[in-house]
Amino acid sequence: MRTTSRASALLIGVLVSASASAGGTVGGWRELPLRHQATSEGQAVVLKDGRILQIGGFESYVWQGGALSTDCEIYDPRRPNSPWVECAPMPVGHGMFWAATLPSGNVLVAGNFVLPENDGPFTSYVYVTARDQWVKVAGGGGPAKQLGNPHSILPILILDDGSALLAGGFSNGPVFASNQAWRFVENRGRPEKGAWVRTGDMPYGAVSASFVKLSDGRALFAGGLVGEVVLADGTWSYIATAQSAVYDPRTGTWKSTGLMPEAVGVDDSATVTPEYFVGGPDCERSDGSDPTCPPGGNWFNPGGRWHPGGAALPDGDALIVGGSTWGATDGGGGGYWSYARNSAVRFDGATDTWSEAAPSEHWRHMARAVTLPLGFVLMNGGYQASAAEFYSPYTDRWYDAGSYSDLPGCPEVGWSEECYNLEEFGGQLRALGDGRAVQTCGYDWNRAFPDVGCDRAWIWTPWAH
């Protein structure tokens, strides 16, 4: 895999630090050529040679019966003006799934979007890059039922031994979310013979959590949705948790690392009134004996986050940013509400403890965060935000990283239809390894509903202004 030389990383750090200290914008964005197919909720991965592979997604709005796409396209950022090149289509359409580049350079795809009444056996595929060919994994193992990955938030993590770690996901069964974890061992000679091996179960099951490979080789799983609750007035809410756990690949076991702190500060979560508490403010901290406490704990736990952004920091640390405290409907299916956060928390890999970090400038839900050279973090997308931000772990400060959005600025507190409809929502942000990053588009709400897939993409460069 392409890596950044120490000299290049230091140069990037100097350029970024100079821009940040001067109070200016760190880096800048440039739009890439349009893709061949407009989709949403697909996946993007960085190939071993530095190219971007964009696959799958929905051809139209998912909750209006959007068809699953078999789209496969590749962009080469080393040739800025080159077009996206079509590759072999996926064997079946995919949306809200997992994907990762394996050490061989091939790409692993796992899980898929299915409605509960249509669930079937778990499936996974490998894209053989050298042959531009897809093969179905038939080596055995894997979950019993198909797993779903809402908005493709959860990544597959590549561990130091080359195996791929998958955890959580919609279980499509009586349990809301899976607490199982699996490691995929690839077969380089015969990719279809790769095998899934079950490893230790997580302390809790969740979807839409932050999942981060730490620099010390372990994996951090934090927050997410653990269930849903229906209230007396017919409204319902997802249950966001503040729980977290760390996986040690040497032992194949998970260890609970406690609850993420409340990190209030300038969060707008104070707008949630007391009647929205279920089981009391300490519900998640209870021993489970309180029958009024919903499964997984208080659905509005002060430290709870679902769809947060997460990125690795130096020395085994991690940064978890944004997400939402809760989400609810009006009971009739006609409305959906989510309270985005701008607070951030930092995981200390040396002590496995949490502390509060500086809040970001924007409230973000479903945003993506990536680690850049020297441990800097770039965060972009989500709704309630219209600009990217750059975080320095050395100063614990956020800096403006520019914007390419066609939309106006977003309010700091409260609901904004325009801010919900950002193009980055449902897209992917990927670090290229040389200090740059590519953002693929999620939804294009300028199109006629329900055909709101997007074919746009942008590249961020740290030395651009």
Quick recap:
This protein is mainly β. It has two helices and 32 strands.
List the helices and strands and how they pair.
Blueprint: H1 6-21, E1 28-31, E2 43-46, E3 52-55, E4 72-75, E5 85-86, E6 98-101, E7 107-110, E8 124-128, E9 133-136, E10 157-158, E11 164-167, E12 181-185, E13 195-198, E14 210-213, E15 219-222, E16 225-230, E17 236-240, E18 243-248, E19 253-259, E20 309-312, E21 318-321, E22 324-329, E23 336-340, E24 344-348, E25 353-357, E26 368-371, E27 377-380, E28 389-392, E29 397-400, H2 417-420, E30 428-431, E31 437-440, E32 457-461
Antiparallel strand pairs: 1-32, 2-3, 3-4, 4-5, 6-7, 7-8, 8-9, 10-11, 11-12, 12-13, 14-15, 15-18, 16-17, 17-22, 18-19, 20-21, 21-24, 22-23, 24-25, 26-27, 27-28, 28-29, 30-31, 31-32
Share of helical residues: under 10%
Tell me the Rg in angstroms. Answer: 21 Å
Largest sheet features: 4 strands, antiparallel
Distance between the termini: 28 Å
Number of E-state strands: 32
Unreliable residue runs: 265-300, 328-337, 406-422
The largest sheet has its strands arranged as 1-32-31-30
Question: What is the overall silhouette?
Answer: globular
% residues in beta strands = 25-35%
From the structure above, extract its key features:
465 residues; mainly beta; four-stranded antiparallel beta sheet; 2 helices; 32 strands; 30% strand
